[in-house]
Each structure stands twice: as structure tokens, then as C-alpha cells.
Design goal:
310 residues; alpha/beta; 9 strands; binds phosphoric acid mono(formamide)ester
């Protein structure tokens, strides 16, 4: 069987992304099913996580699968020097799907090359976070009713934020205008700006999170400054508090605008935004359950819609 791993959002065509969104919508209506009865899903988290791990594990449980894995690699034989290759080969003996988060960019791709068991990348360094992207797309589609003809403003750590890198690539399939709001140190990397230039994708860069930018946005995607990726912590201290969104700043924004954040937030969104109908980050995280159910089924080649017409 061909390896069906999802390591990067670039592994998926536009048609495949749309089909996964449709499958996520199916699971929102049919969250509890036993279609994975007898299957085992492994979650290997070499980096901390709350949402991604717990929503993957909930997704697998609600599909009827058993879950094995770890959230603390120091309690595994990795701490005795076992290599990633050997760890993946061992877990492949036990599980039908491996969900993995790792601090090294490229770790998920490497894992997919040493096993036939499908790997779902749950975040690799500053590189990609494709399951987050699927729930982000699902959230945008649910709230805007479309993925075309929208303005998406990405704010904060555009350099190290793997979620914005994956989301940009996914949205490149649609007619989207971007605002990239970041300081020089955290600017959207050149490879992504070059990609936009080469593909006729409209974007503006700004250091100022201005009212004009907020008021023209359909989606405001706030991000946390990724402390764990900095080699110079003094630089982190200089840039960590540059961008904050509060309720007053949304006063003249579009009635339909939604504020997203992959979470966890540190100081990027004031708590007074939480009660606004424009805040969507907690529902966004809930959508992760349905998007991840869709991803697990896809890598296993299981489609419950074939037997169910609603
Ligand atoms: N959005 C996200 O990846 O959250 P966690 O780090 O809590 O999994």
C-alpha cells in the first residue's frame, strides 16, 4: 500500500483539502462512531502540547480506536539514546497510525521514510503543522462560508510560527489577500514571500497593526512569539510583547471578522476579546477534533460517508 502520511500541507491537493473539510463536517455531525474499532493510534509527542495531543486522542477514541503513546519523551527509551528511527520502527509494530510532534524540522518526513505505517505530522520545529491548518481552514470556511475572496491578516511571529507557514500554503489554492504584520525580526520568511510573488498572491507587509489593517480583515490570525525557537533570549524579550489585540481595536472591524489563534496565547489577545462574537479561538480549537478525525480516517483509507448519505 502507498504511504498515505500527511507530513506537510503541500502533500494535499486542493481537491483533497476540500474533501477533508467535507469529511470534518461529516464528523461534526457524527462525532461518536466505532468505525476504527480494533485499530490503534499512537501519539508520540517529543514537544509539549495541550490541544493537538488531546484532540487527536479524543478523535481516535470517539472513532473507537485505542490510543497508545507518550507526552514525555524523557520517560521513554529515547532518554537511553534510542534513535528516532528505532522508536518509529518499534511503534510501527504496535500501531496503525502514528501521530508525531517533534522539535526538529523534517522529523516527520524522516519518520514517514522509515515505516509503512502512516505518519501524521503534529508539528515539526518551525516547519509545518498540517493538522492545525486543516482545523484553521475548517474554521475559516464555517465562519465565512467560503475560502475565496477573503483578506487574512497574520500577526506576530511569522518567522517561527509553523501554523502560519502551513496556512499560507493551504490558502494559496484560493483567492486570498494577506496582510503580514510583524517586526523585522519576525518577518514572514523570504521563501514564503517569494512563493507569493511567484504565484501572484497579493500580500502587504506592515510593522504596524493599524486600524486600516484590522478593519479590512475577514480573518485576524494572531500568533504567539515562539520563545522555544529563539537562540537569543534577549531578542525574544525585545519582541515578545509587540503585538496585542484588545476589544477596543475591533470596534470598527467588519461585523463578520473572526479572530483566530492556534493557542496557547500568552499576551497576544486581551481577555476582553473573549466575550466578543468576533472571538473564535476556542471554537477553532474544538474544530480540531473533527478535522483530526478526518485526517486519521484519510490516512487509513476509511470513508464513512460512503455508507451514510446524510
Ligand atoms: N495549537 C497547538 O498546536 O496547540 P498545542 O501546542 O497545545 O498542541
Amino acid at each position: 500500500m502507498a504511504n498515505t502520511s500527511i507530513v506537510s500541507i503541500n502533500d494535499l491537493t486542493k481537491a483533497e483539502i476540500l474533501d477533508l473539510l467535507d469529511l470534518a463536517s461529516y464528523f461534526e455531525k457524527h462525532t461518536n462512531s466505532k468505525i476504527l474499532d480494533g485499530r490503534v493510534v499512537a501519539t508520540l509527542f517529543f514537544e509539549p502540547s495541550t490541544r493537538t495531543r488531546l484532540s487527536f486522542e479524543t478523535a481516535a477514541s470517539r472513532l473507537g480506536a485505542r490510543v497508545i503513546g507518550f507526552s514525555d519523551p524523557s520517560a521513554t527509551s529515547t532518554s537511553k539514546g534510542e534513535t528516532l528511527k528505532d522508536t518509529i520502527k518499534m511503534v510501527s509494530n504496535y500501531a496503525d497510525v502514528i501521530v508525531m510532534r517533534h522539535y526538529l524540522e523534517g522529523a516527520a518526513r524522516y519518520a514517514s521514510e522509515v515505516t509503512d505505517v502512516p505518519i501524521i505530522n503534529a508539528g515539526d520545529g518551525a516547519h509545518q503543522h498540517p493538522s492545525q491548518t486543516m482545523l484553521d481552514l475548517y474554521s475559516i470556511f464555517k465562519t465565512q462560508g467560503r475560502l475565496d475572496d477573503i483578506t487574512v491578516t497574520m500577526v506576530g511571529d511569522l518567522k517561527y510560527g509553523r501554523t502560519v507557514h502551513s496556512l499560507l500554503m493551504a490558502l494559496s489554492h484560493f483567492r486570498v489577500k494577506f496582510n503580514f504584520v510583524a517586526c523585522d525580526e519576525l518577518r514572514m520568511p523570504k521563501e514564503f514571500r517569494d512563493f507569493c510573488d511567484a504565484n501572484g498572491i497579493e500580500y502587504k507587509e506592515s510593522k504596524d497593526f493599524s486600524p486600516e489593517i484590522i478593519n479590512e480583515s475577514d480573518i485576524i490570525y494572531m500568533t504567539r512569539v515562539q520563545r522555544e525557537r529563539f537562540t537569543d533570549l534577549l531578542e525574544y524579550e525585545r519582541v515578545k510583547d509587540l503585538y496585542n489585540l484588545n476589544a477596543a481595536m475591533l470596534e470598527n472591524s467588519k461585523p463578520t471578522v473572526k479572530v483566530l489563534h492556534p493557542l496557547p496565547r500568552v499576551g497576544e489577545i486581551s481577555q476582553d476579546v473573549d466575550d466578543s462574537p468576533k472571538a473564535y479561538y476556542f471554537q477553532q480549537a474544538k474544530n480540531g477534533l473533527y478535522a483530526r478525525q478526518a485526517l486519521i480516517c484519510r490516512v487509513l483509507g476509511i470513508d464513512p460517508r460512503k455508507d451514510n448519505n446524510d
